[in-house]
Design goal:
Layout lengths: L1 H7 L10 E5 L3 H12 L4 E5 L2 H10 L4 E5 L8 H10 L5 E5 L4 H10 L3 E4 L4 H23 L1
Parallel strand pairs: 1-2, 1-3, 3-4, 4-5
Helix pairs in contact: 3-4
Protein backbone atom coordinates (compact mmCIF):
# COMPACT_ATOMS: atom_id res chain seq x y z
CA UNK A 1 0.00 0.00 0.00
CA UNK A 2 2.76 2.45 0.91
CA UNK A 3 4.52 1.95 -2.42
CA UNK A 4 1.22 2.51 -4.27
CA UNK A 5 0.82 5.90 -2.60
CA UNK A 6 4.30 6.98 -3.66
CA UNK A 7 3.85 5.60 -7.18
CA UNK A 8 0.71 7.72 -7.54
CA UNK A 9 2.74 10.77 -6.54
CA UNK A 10 5.32 9.96 -9.21
CA UNK A 11 8.00 8.84 -6.78
CA UNK A 12 9.76 5.77 -8.06
CA UNK A 13 12.80 4.13 -6.62
CA UNK A 14 15.10 2.52 -9.13
CA UNK A 15 17.53 1.79 -6.32
CA UNK A 16 16.94 -1.75 -5.10
CA UNK A 17 18.38 -3.66 -2.19
CA UNK A 18 20.35 -0.74 -0.79
CA UNK A 19 20.90 -1.02 2.95
CA UNK A 20 19.67 1.66 5.33
CA UNK A 21 20.36 1.72 9.06
CA UNK A 22 17.76 3.46 11.25
CA UNK A 23 18.64 4.22 14.87
CA UNK A 24 16.00 5.97 16.95
CA UNK A 25 14.98 5.63 20.59
CA UNK A 26 11.30 6.06 19.61
CA UNK A 27 9.82 2.76 18.40
CA UNK A 28 6.91 4.48 16.65
CA UNK A 29 9.25 6.63 14.56
CA UNK A 30 11.35 3.57 13.67
CA UNK A 31 8.26 1.72 12.48
CA UNK A 32 7.08 4.60 10.28
CA UNK A 33 10.52 5.22 8.74
CA UNK A 34 11.00 1.48 8.11
CA UNK A 35 7.64 1.17 6.34
CA UNK A 36 8.36 4.17 4.12
CA UNK A 37 11.78 2.91 3.05
CA UNK A 38 10.92 -0.79 2.75
CA UNK A 39 7.94 0.20 0.61
CA UNK A 40 10.43 1.49 -1.93
CA UNK A 41 12.70 -1.54 -1.91
CA UNK A 42 15.34 -0.56 0.63
CA UNK A 43 16.65 -3.20 2.99
CA UNK A 44 16.15 -1.60 6.39
CA UNK A 45 17.75 -2.44 9.74
CA UNK A 46 16.22 -0.77 12.82
CA UNK A 47 17.64 -0.32 16.32
CA UNK A 48 16.14 1.41 19.33
CA UNK A 49 19.48 1.73 21.14
CA UNK A 50 22.45 3.74 19.96
CA UNK A 51 24.86 1.04 21.18
CA UNK A 52 23.11 -1.70 19.18
CA UNK A 53 23.09 0.56 16.12
CA UNK A 54 26.85 1.01 16.39
CA UNK A 55 27.41 -2.75 16.66
CA UNK A 56 25.31 -3.31 13.53
CA UNK A 57 27.13 -0.50 11.73
CA UNK A 58 30.42 -2.22 12.47
CA UNK A 59 29.13 -5.59 11.24
CA UNK A 60 27.28 -4.58 8.04
CA UNK A 61 28.01 -2.22 5.16
CA UNK A 62 25.26 0.42 4.88
CA UNK A 63 24.50 2.81 2.04
CA UNK A 64 22.68 5.30 4.24
CA UNK A 65 22.24 5.93 7.98
CA UNK A 66 19.42 7.77 9.74
CA UNK A 67 20.01 8.49 13.41
CA UNK A 68 17.94 10.34 15.98
CA UNK A 69 19.64 13.13 17.88
CA UNK A 70 18.27 11.78 21.14
CA UNK A 71 18.00 14.43 23.85
CA UNK A 72 19.78 17.78 23.95
CA UNK A 73 22.81 15.76 25.09
CA UNK A 74 22.92 14.44 21.46
CA UNK A 75 23.30 10.73 22.22
CA UNK A 76 23.02 10.02 18.48
CA UNK A 77 26.46 11.60 18.15
CA UNK A 78 28.01 8.20 18.93
CA UNK A 79 26.40 6.61 15.87
CA UNK A 80 27.29 9.55 13.63
CA UNK A 81 30.88 9.53 14.87
CA UNK A 82 31.32 5.78 14.30
CA UNK A 83 29.68 5.95 10.86
CA UNK A 84 32.12 8.68 9.82
CA UNK A 85 35.10 6.74 11.20
CA UNK A 86 34.13 3.67 9.17
CA UNK A 87 33.31 5.50 5.90
CA UNK A 88 33.43 9.29 5.46
CA UNK A 89 31.50 8.97 2.17
CA UNK A 90 28.48 7.27 3.74
CA UNK A 91 25.57 9.72 4.09
CA UNK A 92 24.22 10.12 7.63
CA UNK A 93 21.01 12.04 8.31
CA UNK A 94 20.27 13.27 11.83
CA UNK A 95 16.60 13.62 12.85
CA UNK A 96 15.27 15.45 15.91
CA UNK A 97 11.97 16.32 17.57
CA UNK A 98 13.27 19.73 18.62
CA UNK A 99 15.98 21.58 16.72
CA UNK A 100 18.94 22.51 18.89
CA UNK A 101 21.45 24.86 17.24
CA UNK A 102 24.40 23.43 19.18
CA UNK A 103 23.50 19.87 18.14
CA UNK A 104 22.89 21.01 14.56
CA UNK A 105 26.32 22.64 14.31
CA UNK A 106 28.03 19.66 15.91
CA UNK A 107 26.27 17.18 13.59
CA UNK A 108 27.20 19.16 10.49
CA UNK A 109 30.83 19.58 11.62
CA UNK A 110 31.05 15.84 12.24
CA UNK A 111 29.93 15.09 8.67
CA UNK A 112 26.14 14.67 8.73
CA UNK A 113 24.56 15.47 5.37
CA UNK A 114 21.63 17.17 7.07
CA UNK A 115 19.75 17.69 10.33
CA UNK A 116 15.96 17.63 10.00
CA UNK A 117 13.05 18.06 12.35
CA UNK A 118 10.58 15.20 12.78
CA UNK A 119 8.22 14.35 11.33
CA UNK A 120 9.78 14.40 7.88
CA UNK A 121 7.13 14.06 5.13
CA UNK A 122 7.45 10.58 3.53
CA UNK A 123 7.95 11.91 -0.01
CA UNK A 124 10.70 14.27 1.20
CA UNK A 125 12.43 11.47 3.12
CA UNK A 126 12.37 9.21 0.06
CA UNK A 127 13.71 11.88 -2.28
CA UNK A 128 16.43 12.69 0.24
CA UNK A 129 17.55 9.08 0.76
CA UNK A 130 17.33 8.19 -2.94
CA UNK A 131 19.33 11.23 -4.03
CA UNK A 132 22.12 10.66 -1.52
CA UNK A 133 22.34 6.91 -2.14
CA UNK A 134 22.50 7.51 -5.90
CA UNK A 135 25.11 10.24 -5.44
CA UNK A 136 27.21 7.99 -3.22
CA UNK A 137 26.95 5.14 -5.72
CA UNK A 138 28.00 7.49 -8.54
CA UNK A 139 31.04 8.73 -6.56
CA UNK A 140 32.07 5.15 -5.73
CA UNK A 141 31.72 4.07 -9.37
CA UNK A 142 33.60 7.16 -10.55
CA UNK A 143 36.57 6.54 -8.26
CA UNK A 144 36.76 2.85 -9.15
CA UNK A 145 36.72 3.52 -12.90
Amino acid sequence: MTSDIFAQQGIECSIRSKKVLLVDEEAGDLRILRLILEGQGFEVFTYISFEAGILCLEAEPFDFVVVSQGSHAFEGRTVLDRAMQLDRRRPVLVLTRCIDMHCYLEAMQMGAIDYLEKPVPPADLLRFVQAHVASREFRINETSA
